[in-house]
Design a protein that fits this description.
This protein is mainly alpha-helical. It is built from ten helices and five strands; from the N terminus they run αβααββααααβαααβ.
Length: 256
């Protein structure tokens, strides 16, 4: 059977995939923000991709709810509201719970030990007196955080679920970029939450690990919900809400 090599179709698909990967990277780096308007040509420049590849990527982004076309204005990145927050975190919880219940039986002791050790190293750096001067701490902590969740999902060996999870992760990242900030002090509780369900994983206690994971995801969702207090008040249409401690504004390093 003859095989066609380097066909125009294959090249087009490759370019579209590269454009999508570039879009993902820009979201993760915070260059593309929730609610932002951007033209196709601006995306072409931002992603360093030909216009054709950008145009072919857009239907994929629209189907995932990551962008929508607004007449006379161009493309709008998904706007963050309470519905998006609720839906994105619900999808995250459903997928990660199933992934964890698989991971608890398939992860090796050596892998779990290495994951735990990595978290302890990040915690030690975050607790150090010079944590605010540690230029790479927050980026490495974020990579470790999301890397663990990605690893558990990918361990299922199901490409469809992994792809769906990655798309939803973009939604969650847009939410976090729009509505929350991180400092070394806010990093510590998140790492401690990880360590609690990692400990349950090492004990091969799936039920306990799942409960602790759900608490971790709920905590992340609540931090997002509570951060933009004025916005939440406006969207609920109420004049007052229970007291919520404001986000500390001193020593803010970056959005996540």
């Amino acid at each position: 059977m003859n095989q066609v090599v380097n066909s125009p179709v294959d090249d087009s698909l490759s370019q579209r995939a590269k454009a999508y990967q570039g879009f993902t990277r820009q979201v993760f780096e915070g260059t593309i923000r929730a609610g932002q308007f951007v033209s196709q040509r601006e995306l072409m420049t931002l992603l360093d991709m030909p216009l054709g590849a950008v145009r072919e990527m857009i239907p994929r982004l629209e189907a995932a709810g990551l962008v929508k076309t607004v007449p006379q204005r161009g493309l709008q990145i998904a706007h963050v509201d309470l519905r998006l927050i609720r839906n994105a975190f619900q999808v995250r919880s459903m997928i990660e719970r199933e992934a964890l219940l698989h991971f608890v039986h398939t992860a090796t002791d050596a892998e779990l030990e290495a994951i735990e050790a990595s978290h302890h190293r990040i915690l030690a750096r975050a607790a150090a007196p010079d944590a605010l001067q540690d230029a790479t701490l927050l980026d490495e902590a974020q990579a470790l955080d999301w890397g663990l969740h990605d690893r558990m999902v990918d361990a299922l060996g199901n490409d469809i679920i992994s792809d769906q999870y990655r798309v939803n992760s973009l939604r969650v990242r847009l939410i976090k970029l729009e509505q929350s900030v991180i400092t070394p002090g806010r990093l510590i509780p998140a790492m401690q939450e990880h360590l609690r369900f990692i400990e349950a994983l090492r004990a091969r206690d799936g039920a306990k690990a799942a409960t602790l994971l759900e608490e971790h995801i709920s905590s992340a969702r609540n931090r997002v919900m509570h951060a933009p207090l004025e916005q939440v008040r406006n969207e609920w249409g109420v004049s007052s809400t229970p007291h919520i401690d404001p986000i500390p504004t001193d020593n803010i390093r970056r959005h996540v």
